[in-house]
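ok here's HTH-type transcriptional regulator MalT:
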Amino acid sequence: MHGLAPVNLLLVHAPAGYGKTTTMADRLRALEARAAWYRLESGDNDPARFAGYLAQALEVQVPGCCQSTLETLQNDGYSSLESFLTDLLAELPQDDEPLYVVLDDYHLITNQDIHDSLRFLLRHIPAYLTLVLISRTMPPVGVAQLRMQGRMSEITTRDLAFGADEAQQYFESRLPYEVSRESIERAVRRSEGWISAFQLLSASAATSIEFSDFVDQLAHGNQYIFDYFDELLGQGLTEQQRTFLLRTSILDRFNAAMVMRVMNDSDGQALLSSLLGMGLFITPVDNSALWFRYHPLFSVYLRHLLSCTTQENQQELHQRAVDAWLELDHAEEAAKHAIAAKDVDRITRVLTAHGRKFFTEGQFTLLQRCLDTLPQDIIAQAPTLTLLRAWVAQGQYKFDEVENWLSAAEARLQASMNDDTQRAIEGEFSAIRAQVAMNYGDHERALVLATEAINQEARFLPTSRVAAASVIGEALFVQGQLDEALARMQDTEHLARTHHAHQNVLWALCQQSEISVAMGLLQKAYNIQERAFQYAEENHLNHLPILEFLFRIRSQIMWEWHHLESAERCALQGIEILEAQGERWYVQSHTSLAKVAHARGRQSLCADYISRIQKMLAAGDYHLDWVANAHATMLTYWDAVRDHDSIQRWLTIAPPCDPASATNHFHQCNGRNRARALVSLGQYELALPLLESLTEVAERIGLKTDLNRNHIALAYLFWQMENRDQALVHMKTALTLASTTGAVGSFLRMGKVLIVILKALINEGAIDGMELQRAERLIQLAQQQRDFSRAIRISLDEAIIQDIIDRPDVPELIRTSPLTRREWQILSLIHAGLSNDQIAEHLKVASTTVKTHIRSLYQKQNISHRAEAIELAKDLLSKIQGE
Ligand SMILES: Nc1ncnc2c1ncn2[C@@H]1O[C@H](COP(=O)(O)OP(=O)(O)OP(=O)(O)O)[C@@H](O)[C@H]1O
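and the structure:
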């Protein structure tokens, strides 16, 4: 509990609807303390009335405590509030039991006499008494001095705002549907934990989709919230204050000087102070109390008001903001306002001075928004702007545009440049062309162009050579030359460091991590990521979009190591970073979240993510790396819910795959996806050669993580083909490989059948030492894992059956009249909810045969109904697969 230690004053202050009253009431109730509660109204500015109600509130709480003061009030009255308080304090019983006097909504008090009387009270307050002021504003009762003397404590917006965990609890207890953590975190970010927004949200959204849409809407404005703010501002604003709010609403943050510039008014400081005194949604940015900002929802509201008025020239406001930010050397903010002002001259000025910095920081969206407003000719005549434009287009996979921009500049500049300059430009253009070639999959051309670029001095964009070095590393990586690729990426990192090119340093580190993952060295990859996090921390880069890449690959490792909390946290952090960049970039983070939801057995959440991923994939053009990763997760989901139609459909649109040339992780993943889809559909003969071919390539090149995953897939495939020996061989190899990769997630993804295969392997005595330990741990995890469908879908094995029979707690009949292997299989399929015809189809036998088996099974176990068979299966099988 924050500050119910004995103090003279407890101040609860925050804007409207933050839960001040509720929180205070809850805390006092929890303390079981005596509390005289007085809810003020505007009429209570009258001193006599104030005194009367205060004494009555005390009398209600401690009957008889101030009878004589009340009598004086009623008969003669007091000449001043001070004499009233003097009598009151003298009459209150002097016991040790704490007594709280709560004045709620104190911001309604404007009478200086009342403020002064509270100062007087606080000077003479006895130790057992605590004055609690609940207010939207800072009450003028000598707070600063009390704070210095350590005689007060405070509950502020920061304490009252709901964090993500509290919000989750709040929604879980109120909503009839499940909401994703991601939506909850977005709601918390957009509302800054403002409970009133949550109330509205839970009252307005009837489904999880509506919930998510509502949260999105918060960024653009919601009529109910607008109405709330309308009421809050009411008639209480002067024209000047209103103008202030409208004009400054364009700023993400402001201080008095900034306000004066944008307002074109010298009264900024006084106005700011008057508004701060109104308890509006204005928050200090830091402890210095010099910079402020609006609450995001209030800011949306004010911007809405601004857009509705014809009296303000928004373009002019933004132009003034550009100039003010440039004076303060805050280029990023200046750029944003220049874009909003659609001011070509100012944008050109900002870009010419700071465009390179934006680029090395990886601020591609900002650059793109700037460049989008510039006429083509301005860009074509400036090599640096052309380079920036082309790099941005390439970053957005608009490869055709890249060439258009480069050729336009070449045509425009040819006449006016000497050979030397032209060579320099061409060298830098080659670096981008190399990257484009890379993205088209033409590694040979990429290498040639990048080599050309790396040998040229970079005159216009200092990072061109770094980019070229990076392309060389990437090309080697996708060709499967892992050692050389890693060395190149290390060189790139060093080169980037010498240029302080943060984006490139982080990119090179992320690539080193990716290469290490491909080599199966996940711990090494993790360590490299740590270095990248440290670099970001040291250079204050935590807001850069590239950080999402880092969080994403961290999330992938965490999932593989089965640290699900951490995997989820990293994906959510990635989403937070990309919030301003647009949904298109969420594919990977959503894929991670879907994997986590799947591993936790949260079906509806997983379904939600999968459908969002599908929508994004349909709307965009993504690199195979992203697509394959997303598809892998979609396929796992469809397989788990047995949605064969979707798998079938996927096969018709799946990216082409050539397993023999799958020399990198994304081609491997893509090939494995196809194989897994075929396995799900029972087309084992088609899946097998594909997996074998992928495995052969992965082995040759040293793609150890893929090798590990391929062996897991092969083990599963052979098990489905009822080729037990081969299944065990591959599972054993997979376990051995896992001793370097540390893989867990890839095993668990298989579902409950993993338990059966591992148990078979253990029963064979085929593994020992580390592998045995790993197998046992995997069994334990798989048993704990919640399956989507509660039905058991494992094909049983002799060893498993034996394992079940050997348990002391099985029904006697199982031992005395043993079932055949077929009968065991049928029992598990009945339990899985299959009809007799489906069982026949599954086992590829006639329905009459199935019926015969069932009859025999019922007889042996003395069963007369299907429901009993299901119960029996549940009982038996739960012993090995866990609940
Ligand atoms: N911890 C909580 N859990 C659930 N609901 C809450 C919680 N805190 C506040 N609320 C709800 O939020 C709304 C606003 O709360 P409250 O009236 O306490 O805020 P306030 O800050 O005192 O507002 P005002 O400044 O308008 O007096 C109320 O409807 C209240 O029931």
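+1. The longest helix spans residues 419-439.
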